[in-house]
Amino acid sequence: MTDPKTTPDLDPGSPVADEASNEAADAVESADAAFGAEGEAPTDATSAALRDAERQLAEQKDKYVRLLAEFDNFRRRSGKERLEAESKGMGALIAGLLDSLDDMGRVAHFDPATTPAQSIVDGVLLVEKKVLKSLAGHGLVVVNPEGEKFDPSVHEALTAIPAALPEEDELVAQVYQVGYTFNGQLLRPARVVVKQWHG
Fold it and tell me: How is residue 41 annotated by DSSP?
């Protein structure tokens, strides 16, 4: 008789494992019932029942192995498709930054002896603007909340200062470091100073 314990491992909580386990258990139960009390000599009926139970177990094991193979193929295929999608997304993101990378290279090779400082500053600002525009096209949002109501979901309070008026209570007085969200996901909170009204 085939031992169901020798079949390959499958997620115990999966419907496939449950179905195979239940059907194998039914086959073993049928065989046990056919044997009758311990010590009795097997009859033609019990021998036939035993052969039928063994056949059912063999069928269930074959079904189990095939389902396991299909499940493994599905898991590998899903993982490969996920990696390909991530790679394409990263490629699109990088492609959008290539022009800015070229600009950054040109600014980095300005001759400081012959280039006015203001031209270098303007070049850096232009690169920053192009980078932010490209990333915004992919879902990046800058969180710069100066003057806005403090929002603990996207702001991090570094310290508090007294508010001059009650209506200024919990307003952001200063932004030490801007934050970023990406397609609704918080990448980094804005680090801020918050006004507090003490009456």
Answer: P
Cα 183 to Cα 97: distance, rounded to the nearest angstrom = 18
Q: Residue 61's pLDDT is what?
A: 95
Q: Which residues pair with 191 in a beta bridge?
A: 156, 177
Q: Is the dihedral of CA 14, 16, 19, 20 positive or negative?
A: negative
d(CA 53, CA 24): 9
- The Cα-based distances of 93 to 23, 103, 135, 137, 170 in angstroms read 51, 17, 7, 9, 37
113: helix, strand or coil = coil
Contacts of residue 85, Cβ cutoff 8 Å, sequence gap at least 6 = none
pLDDT of residue 43: 81
What pLDDT was estimated at residue 24? Answer: 60
Tokens linked to 69: 């193979």
- pLDDT less than 70: residues of the chain: 1-42
Whose tokens are 């192009």? That residue is 130
Residue 132: Cβ-neighbour burial (10 angstroms; 0-12, 13-18, 19+)? middle
Name the residue among 195, 143, 133 with its Cα closest to residue 167: 195
Alpha carbon distances (Å) from 183 to 141, 142, 186, 187: 8, 11, 8, 10
The pLDDT score that the predictor gives to residue 5 is: 45
Predicted confidence at residue 16, as pLDDT, reads 55
Query: Residue 4 has which token pair?
Result: 């169901």
Closest CA to 55 of 79, 31, 19, 76: 31
